[in-house]
Design the sequence.
């Protein structure tokens, strides 16, 4: 059976955002715009199943890029079995963050159905329900997105930056992206998970914004840097 991957568009906005650059370990500095990974996570928060995956294909920047800095208290360690209690006063760290404010994006993504016989390096990556179909998952996502429902609260880079969203049914009467072109440099693309589901490698791509639009290459493209 031949399947057709359906494209969906979400308009996403929030008061604050921080899409942290991985090369900066101490201070949090955001990318200029949302990363494909953060965009995918918003779709995942609304609806996700092992039977399909979300692929971001385009990001439109609707609000001008605005920055602000903030100093925050953070805890310098995490709880574990050996260290179940953390004394905040002893582990408090003051860090600066360079974040974005008043962000708004229009994100285009494909809901890519994974066939039953899909395999990865000889290993079956899932055992789906025989009665499942792309149309079933299309309908569920559309219903949830239209009602503003989500399994987890979507966020813009960090969990304290909550994201609002709405499903865009068509491109008519929609706000135009900003009239700005910019080379965004090397940007984090997403994680490439191994068949064991434990190990993962970072993927990057050379991002550029033309008239407010960022075209995201496919995962298997030669443009993806590993």
Sequence:
């Amino acid at each position: 059976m031949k399947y057709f991957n359906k494209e969906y568009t979400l308009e996403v906005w929030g008061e604050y955002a921080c899409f942290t650059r991985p090369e900066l370990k101490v201070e949090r500095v955001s990318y200029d715009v949302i990363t494909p990974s953060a965009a995918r996570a918003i779709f995942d928060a609304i609806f996700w199943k092992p039977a399909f995956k979300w692929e971001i294909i385009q990001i439109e920047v609707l609000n001008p890029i605005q920055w602000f800095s903030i100093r925050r208290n953070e805890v310098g360690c995490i709880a574990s079995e050996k260290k179940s209690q953390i004394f905040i006063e002893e582990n408090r760290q003051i860090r600066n963050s360079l974040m974005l404010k008043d962000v708004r994006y229009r994100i285009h993504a494909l809901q890519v159905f994974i066939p039953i016989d899909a395999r990865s390096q000889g290993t079956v990556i899932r055992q789906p329900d025989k009665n499942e179909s792309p149309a079933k998952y299309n309908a569920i996502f559309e219903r949830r997105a239209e009602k503003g429902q989500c399994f987890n609260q979507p966020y813009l880079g960090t969990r304290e930056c909550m994201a609002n969203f709405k499903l865009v049914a068509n491109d008519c009467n929609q706000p135009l992206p900003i009239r700005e072109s910019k080379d965004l440099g090397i940007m984090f693309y997403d994680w490439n998970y191994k068949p064991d589901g434990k190990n993962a490698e970072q993927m990057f791509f050379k991002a550029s914004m033309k008239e407010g639009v960022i075209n995201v290459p496919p995962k298997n493209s030669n443009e993806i840097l590993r």
Observations:
- The helical segments are 36-46, 88-91, 134-147.
- Residues 121-126 have pLDDT under 50 and may be disordered.
